[in-house]
Amino acid sequence: MNKRAIGNLKVSEIGLGCMGYSHGYGPTPEDNTSIKLIQKAYDYGCTFFDTAEAYGQGHNESLVGEAIKEFRENITLATKYLIPELPNDKKEAEKVIRKHLYDSMERLQTDYIDLYYEHRRSNIPIEWTSEIMGKFIDEGLIKGWGMSQVNADTIKKAQETTPITAIQSEYSIMERMFEKEVIPLCEKLNIGFVPFSPLASGFLSGVYKKPSEYIGDDVRRVITRYKETNQKQNQPILDVVKEFSERKNCSMAQISLAWILARNEHIVPIPGSKKYDIMIENFDACTIKLTKKEYEEFNEKLNPLKIYGNRTGEDIAKLKYLDK
Ligand SMILES: NC(=O)c1ccc[n+]([C@@H]2O[C@H](COP(=O)([O-])OP(=O)(O)OC[C@H]3O[C@@H](n4cnc5c(N)ncnc54)[C@H](OP(=O)(O)O)[C@@H]3O)[C@@H](O)[C@H]2O)c1
Question: 188, 173, 145, 183: which is closest to 240 by C-alpha?
């Protein structure tokens, strides 16, 4: 895979989202199977791995740490802290975040993180967060930093104190809310953009089931994108995706990733899969190049289509009220 620049970091054009090995998509593989998958991703040329302390309450970081330890120096390792309630005092808040960072590094078997994200906005001012991240960079604990699901104003404020490496937010053919302001702002400020759920939790592959057929902590049980009525109403979008996949002789998932890659040179999607063949299919999407004309045509067909449903934190929170 070729490399792309996100801020000050160079990563493979497509990264690997590791969340599903611990969290979010129902039953998880045996740890050894997940570790081998992550290692095979590296063998295939993937050098960008995404995890978070919240995925399986540390389990995912431990898994990733074990998998990458032999080639740690050759990859870009991204993780996230999630602390909704920090002390309302800059020094105290820094102490708490620092503790989370050290705990993540321990689980990841490393003494630095390449890209450290704030998973969701904490209660402290963004200026404080940005300053604290700047300190961690100066101390060599992290190489760059970012945030997830934030708006343009927050990015502008944060950028003034410590330049941001990347914003990781949901972006795909099915979720285009950041296209208006955030992605153009990232382009202007030389900030990378890392789309999560780039296949809309797999829906864009064209292979999906009824929500009631998913089990455990699978978000597809509760996100409105997967509601049966919305699955049906979103069929025109899948028809366009299918048409272009046939034109480019690739799978629907691959064309959906190629559509993301075509947007600009500093956008790096991180699809996730628990299956080797699917993971490789996704990486191979970087060989599908949409010309400017094809990309415009694709958008001309997509733009008028209404998107039904989405993937919100509020809907995902409903999982805890469902039977396992
Ligand atoms: N910042 C945040 O708040 C946030 C939120 C969510 C996720 N993330 C990160 O982003 C990563 C990716 O998100 P995601 O896992 O939701 O992405 P995704 O790739 O859109 O969805 C993954 C789901 O789609 C299926 N899938 C993937 N490729 C497929 C293909 N080619 N054909 C058919 N099905 C396919 C997978 O099934 P199989 O496993 O069965 O293949 C899995 O169930 C996560 O791993 C995590 O690191 C971040």
Answer: 173
